[in-house]
Amino acid sequence: MSVLTSLPPAFPVDKVEAIVDELYGLKGNFSALDSERDQNFRLTEANGQSWVVKIANQAEDLQALDFQAALLRHVAELDPALPLPHLRPTLHGEILGRCTSAEGKAHFVRVVGWLPGKPFAKGHKSAALFASFGETLGRLTKALQGFGHPGAARDFDWDVAQAGKSRARLAYIDEPAQRDTVEYFLDRFDAHVAPRLKRCRAQVIHGDANDYNVLVDAATGEQIAGIIDYGDAIHSPLINELAVAAAYAIMDRDAPIDDAAAMAAAFHKANPLLPDEVDLLFDLIAARLVISVTMSASRKDRSKDNAYLAISEAPAWNLLKRLRAMDPMIATGLLRQACGFEAAAGARDVIAWLKDNRRTLAPVLDQAPATMRKGLVPFGDRNHPIAIASAARKPAEAEKLWAEIMAQDGIDLGIGPWGEDRPVYTAAAFDSTLSTGERRSRHLGLDLFLDAGANVRTPLPGKVVDIYVSDLPLDYGHAILLEHNPAPGITFFSLWGHLSAASAKAVKVGDELKAGAVVGQMGPNTENGGWQPHVHLQLIAYRPAAAADVIGAGEPGYTKVWAELFPSPATFANLPAETFTKTGRSSDDLLKLRKEKLVRNLSISYKTPMKIVRGEGVYLIDDRGRAYLDCYNNVAQLGHANPEIVEALARQAAILNTNTRYLHDNIIAYAEKLTATLPKNLTVAGFVCSGSEANDLALRLSRNYTQAKGVVALDWAYHGHLSSLIEISPYKYKRKGGKGRPETTGEAMLPDGYRAPADWPQAEIAARYAASVTTAIEQLAEAGHKPAAFIAESLPSSAGQIVLPDGYLKAAYAAARKAGAVIIADEVQIGFGRVGSHMWAFDSHGAVPDIVTMGKPIGNGHPMAAMVTTREIADAFFNGMEYFNTFGGNPVSCAVGLKVLEILERDKLLANATRLGTSLIARMSKLMEKHDRIGDVRGQGLMLGIELVEDRKTKVPATDYAGRIVEKCRQLGVLLGTDGPYDNVIKMRPGMIFTDANADFLMQVLETAFADVA
Ligand SMILES: Cc1ncc(COP(=O)(O)O)c(C=O)c1O
What we know:
Layout: H1 13-24, E1 29-33, E2 39-44, E3 50-55, H2 62-78, E4 87-88, E5 97-100, E6 106-113, E7 118-119, H3 127-143, H4 176-197, E8 202-205, E9 214-216, E10 224-227, E11 234-237, H5 239-249, H6 256-270, H7 275-299, H8 307-311, H9 313-325, H10 328-338, H11 347-356, E12 374-376, H12 385-391, H13 395-409, E13 413-416, E14 442-443, E15 446-449, E16 455-457, E17 462-469, E18 478-487, E19 490-499, H14 501-506, E20 512-513, E21 518-521, E22 535-540, E23 553-554, H15 559-565, H16 587-597, E24 612-616, E25 619-622, E26 627-630, H17 643-653, H18 665-676, E27 682-688, H19 691-706, E28 710-714, H20 723-726, H21 730-733, E29 745-748, H22 765-782, E30 787-792, H23 808-818, E31 822-826, E32 851-854, E33 865-870, H24 871-877, H25 891-906, H26 909-930, E34 934-940, E35 943-948, H27 959-972, E36 974-975, E37 977-979, E38 985-988, H28 996-1012
Parallel strand pairs: 12-13, 26-36, 28-29, 28-30, 30-31, 31-32
Antiparallel strand pairs: 1-2, 2-3, 3-6, 4-6, 5-6, 7-9, 8-11, 9-10, 13-15, 14-23, 15-22, 16-21, 17-18, 17-20, 18-19, 19-22, 24-25, 25-26, 27-33, 32-33, 34-35, 35-38, 37-38
The protein binds pyridoxal-5'-phosphate.
């Protein structure tokens, strides 16, 4: 017979009094205490001191009692401050006394010190109390880590590790719903818990820290004052200590998992748990309750009078029922996070993987949402008519209202953000299962609103693992669950809700979808659960049993857990963060303040100025989270905020940035690398901070070398903003505010093949334009000046993307040289591979200058520039005057410059520019077939232009039209500009990292703009 089947001893009180007096010499008042298997009394002596007298069950053996005594001694030694009872020896100095019942049966007797305090079961329970409880158990188990005793090896039905045995008692449960609940947890225990529990750390534990075995300090009610009754101590998995304690402590609580989490957190602090242990806690709590309720049911007949067993029965059933309603993954997520672990194993890796790989993801809609004009659908605003209509299940009305807002605010895509609090969730299904009285109002997916029928696409390869169909109002309608395994160890799931009925039919479980493949279509409100059409996209960082199990909204109080279990799909759907959060001043404020605080000559692009807050690759992102394809800015040639360049810059900035008066490796390494890309006579570099400075330095060197002053420039050229350069920039001195051509400047014709005089024979165009260089030199001579320099871009940009006629450059250089001029090639815009075929545009004409100036893309946005010349010209400049440039050639700039050259070469970006440029020119030329006002399409590599005219014959510039096309393209998400003498040339200088997809988008937008703009 075991201690569980043998009834507790039943000595009459007077007999107990006599035994205790005889064995311990103690007298006083005896009052009976509840016990399942022993007969216990509280003995209060006349002096007020109390003891617990325990007459052991007759089946209790010596080893078991010795085990308890040894355990208490061990803990008292290791953590003396722990509030544990202390055994009082008999008058003969023994730990155990003995007595005999009237029936002649022998029993052991113990007397232990009475611990003050009231049972945990009684009274108010604060968060601090749960924490104190967890901490006390953590300390107790920590103290027991190294303790062993033969008595600990017990086979005991109350051991949570043995919960599976409860199945044998299932038949005693009459109520089918209760039996179902128990069976559910037993199935989980057998399938998931028992095998994993075997791998968990085991040791001696108290084993029964139920709410009557735990005493609370009566004064504060917030501290544990005692852990008593070591009769169930056992060698068992460590985590069971916490599971048993929590099972009782959290009964009848509003948010039981919160309380268990508070216990777990404090336990973990005192005695760190492992994630695998915490993973089992929820089920082990349930398992303990299963043992309790099945035990009660099985004993009801035989021990109807055993009040102790029944004490926790009703609350245990209630708690089991509540736990049954919870998603174990969510409850476990709360417990894990309380201990500082991620909410689900691998969740943080999934989030990090998505962040790191977001640029590789395919668009989630037919058009990438990042590039669309987005607006928030006001589901979160309880008073908004759309929220009211949606909650009232009037989706058509909501849809109509939203269409009006879209039209008014210029929105293409409606957004329902992850984490939004939504009063629209009114149905009873949104009541919290975790926390009484709370509602699940926080949106755990990302909603994308388009018209019914719009495709939704998977950004990553995915396998269909479940298809869910529901006609419940405000449910998902038709939903598809995909599994993604994008990298070893990275697995997550995506749920696509509110799809059309046809979507659910078009796929089957097991289908493998490629990245970018259509998952389905947004359903009409008759098929999508009764909502205005949208997709609810939700990520799940664990393996859900089924799509139906995935909650789409959660309690606001658990947002930290949601963020890991159901990570925001914003990255997955490639939605810029700016879609959801605004920073800084409004565009209107900025515009006003610019006028007040800045020189007013700064111009602003587009009719409606753009507030750009971030750049990423080929995109510029505005303050509303719209990403524009930047086809204009040729500075960030390797992509905006290129991480490699940022890293190179930051690394050197963190070490040293100073001027050239100290020796440094970077400047030499950079000069070597840079000059190696140039013709072999160009060997000496000067480093400066802007293209203008480079050109100014080039002028100084030229004038010094030739001892002349005059400069020949091309008509409509722009060479920089310094005084010396405005003088040689017809683009400036001829236009508003300009003072006209100075006499030291000679103006050669702009060698524009498209606008060459009609009577020039085609074969002579280059030569005739080159002859104008000589004319300009004569112009100078008339004013008494000799030419110091001939300066030209090898593909004039501000002048309207002019591709020089074949043979022109060589001839022009020869003419200028003949007159003694130094040749300056201004490669500030056009250099660094933009023309594709060559690193430097002059090279593509087989011409060799004496000085090359460089800027813009040289640092991919970092302000730096350079001038490279011949040894002879450089040496002539060395006349004793120091050349000092505070920032030019600093170690940071040189580190950046080196990285730019490395990437250009490594990623073969010149070849990319040639390939894409050639194809774009061909595709744009095709546009000429449809659109008469396209007069010319031209370019080299990724330096492209479309010249617009009112009439192809007269070539009257279509300036206004060009402006409208550029505005339209901006509306459609592509940034372009206009330039040229008549501002009628659409100028395109996309980044060298442009892709085929970028080119397709550019073409698509150009086609739409030309089709739409009158
Ligand atoms: C051909 C050319 N040269 C020189 C410059 C002047 O460069 P920065 O603005 O860096 O001074 C520019 C600027 O637009 C340019 O286009």
